[in-house]
Specification:
Elements lengths: L13 E6 L4 H10 L5 E7 L8 H4 L22 E4 L6 H10 L3 E4 L9 H8 L13 E2 L2 H9 L3 E3 L3 H15 L3 E11 L14 H4 L4 E2 L7 H9 L7 E9 L6 E9 L4 H12 L6 E3 L5 H4 L5 E8 L2 E8 L7 H11 L16
Helix pairs in contact: 1-11, 5-11, 6-8
């Protein structure tokens, strides 16, 4: 497994298209891409706002405000396409994009599960592009960076799996945990998307904490499928997500049984060795969400609670859990430094 080491410097500009440009993830993609030194935003697709200039939708994006939103993804002419769409939409357009030689980063779930039958079970619809599932690379660069470099189709991970897998995978690789992995996760309401629902609408979500996704959240099979790729990993997963009254940010408290004593020191040493030189993983004190918000960073911490180690993992659900990680993947696909255009902290763009 690779940490996604840095590649060569860029030699030319690449054209990108964003499909689903007016959702939260689409907007975050455009925000970061608008100042990226290697990517030029050539097209932005939005069914709901087609015909409008981007400046009418997002006046803060001065650099690309003159771009007119299109409704037609079949006319995309770009080097890379970012698909920020709900389940079931990406698989309708990916075959055509790949046929035209366009690299694809899908921020939705359509290519995260390698088994089309499992996809149908989890998402309640058949997968109409099962032919391309075997070549889709799971885009967690810290774990699969070398595969991302040679990919033309990348499945960007979900936000909860990103925070969980960055914490759990190194422990599974070293065989230092067994039994159940319990993930108590909390995320801001932007993770539910731009369309308000009965649970994510502000009057429903404010002043409360809401557990949801029972009995099985859709991200659980995604995480289990990655566990299965790690030799010797034999653990069960208990995953309980909660909606908290914040706009963005995600924190996981992770409980796992160590195979030997000295879990805290051992876990931390494993993280420091595993992520030595990693551009976007920080190991240290218990994280605060504002550290991660607006960045592509994951903050990991191991603390003792009684005799047991507890791991805390914090990311921005729209950043490392979505848009900025998608750009990290695209950088690798282009053969560039993975941190290109992502090195700024917070909302510097």
């Amino acid at each position: 497994m690779s940490t996604g080491a840095r590649g060569p410097l860029i030699t030319l500009m690449a054209k990108v298209a964003v499909i689903g440009a007016t959702g939260y993830l689409g907007g975050e993609l455009l925000r970061i891409l608008s100042s990226h030194p290697g990517f030029e935003i050539a097209q932005a697709v939005s069914q709901s706002r087609a015909g409008q200039r981007l400046s009418e939708v997002a006046p803060n994006l001065d650099a690309v405000g003159g771009l007119v939103l299109s409704a037609d993804s079949s006319a995309i002419d770009a080097d890379v396409a970012f698909l920020a769409q709900p389940a079931g939409e990406a698989m309708k357009v990916v075959p055509g994009l790949l046929e035209r030689g366009i690299k694809v980063v899908d921020l939705g779930p359509d290519y995260r599960l390698p088994d089309p039958n499992e996809y149908a079970r989890v998402y309640g619809r058949p997968h109409v592009d099962a032919a391309h599932l075997p070549e889709a690379v799971y885009g967690l660069p810290e774990l699969f960076g070398e595969k991302v470099r040679s990919a033309r189709l990348v499945a960007n991970p979900g936000c909860y799996p990103t925070a969980t897998l960055l914490a759990v995978a190194p422990l599974l690789e070293k065989g230092v945990i067994s039994g159940s992995v319990v993930v108590d996760a909390k995320s801001g309401t932007s993770g539910a998307g731009a369309s308000p629902s009965a649970t994510s609408h502000h009057p429903e979500a404010a002043s409360t904490i809401l557990p949801y996704g029972s009995p099985e959240h859709r991200h659980s099979p995604e995480m289990r499928s990655v566990f299965d790729r790690i030799p010797g990993a034999h653990v069960s997963l208990v995953f309980v997500p909660h909606l908290v009254p914040l706009v963005r940010g995600l924190l996981c408290s992770i409980y796992a049984t160590p195979t030997e004593a000295g879990g805290v020191e051992r876990f931390e040493a494993i993280y420091r060795a595993r992520y030595d030189g990693a551009s976007f993983v920080r190991v240290g004190p218990v994280p605060k969400l504002p550290w991660a918000v607006g960045t592509n960073r994951c903050y990991l911490s191991v603390q003792a609670v009684g005799d047991a180690p507890v791991v805390f993992s914090a990311i921005d659900n729209l950043g490392k859990g979505g848009a900025s990680q998608a750009i990290q993947n695209a950088n690798l696909m282009m053969g560039w430094d993975e941190s290109l255009g992502l090195a700024r902290s917070g909302f510097g763009v």
